[in-house]
Every structure is written in C-alpha cells, then in structure tokens.
Specification:
- The longest helix is centred in the C-terminal third of the chain and has 11 residues.
- The chain is an alpha+beta fold and about 100 residues long.
- The protein is globular.
- The chain has one domain.
- Strand 3 and strand 4 form a beta hairpin.
- The two termini are about 25 Å apart.
- Strands 1-2 form a two-stranded antiparallel sheet. A two-stranded antiparallel ribbon has the order 3-4.
Length: about 100
C-alpha cells in the first residue's frame, strides 16, 4: 500500500520521509517512504508512529474497518501475501474493543 501525499489536502511533503512514485501513464507523485519489504517507514509493531501528524490519506483510512470487514483467514492471507502489514490488523483489533 502506497500512501500518496496530497498538498491540496494540507499535507506538507517536507514534514515526512518521502519517495517519488513513477507509474506508467501518470505523472510522478510523492508518497510516504517504504522499507524494502513494502511497509511504511512510520509503521512499527505498535502501529503508526506519526498518528498525531498523519497525512490526509492515513487520516481517512480506518484500520478498525479493515479488521472488522475481514475474517481470520482473510487477515492471515493478506499478511502472508504482504498486502497488509500485521501491525495494521493488530491496531484495528485494539481500536475495535
């Protein structure tokens, strides 16, 4: 999951560790940087480390809904296939209580 930064929504790319994403047929755009495994550089085992200053896309994303709208096997598959970091499901579960 790439997280685009949206200056038109108030994001300041200079306030984050970023990378530029090049997609065929689209103008390059700035995203939050990723580790080699694809995880956001601001995600650790406890969840988001910049929650209090998260960019627009992150603020509108709800990890509780991601957790609630998937069953155990779906979550395992998503983590195993590298589509969703385990920390996102863990945090969604915590916030759902």
């Amino acid at each position: 999951m790439m997280t685009p930064l949206r200056p038109e929504k108030g994001d300041d790319p200079g306030a984050y560790q970023t990378a530029v994403c090049f997609t065929p047929g689209r103008e390059p755009y700035v995203i939050l940087d990723r580790h080699p495994n694809g995880d956001c550089v601001y995600l650790n085992e406890s969840g988001c480390t910049i929650h209090d200053r998260a960019p627009f896309e992150c603020r509108r994303y709800d990890c509780r809904a991601m957790f609630k709208n998937s069953d155990r096997e779906g979550r395992r598959d998503a983590v195993r296939q590298g589509r969703v970091p385990r920390a996102i499901f863990r945090r969604g579960k915590e916030l759902s209580r």
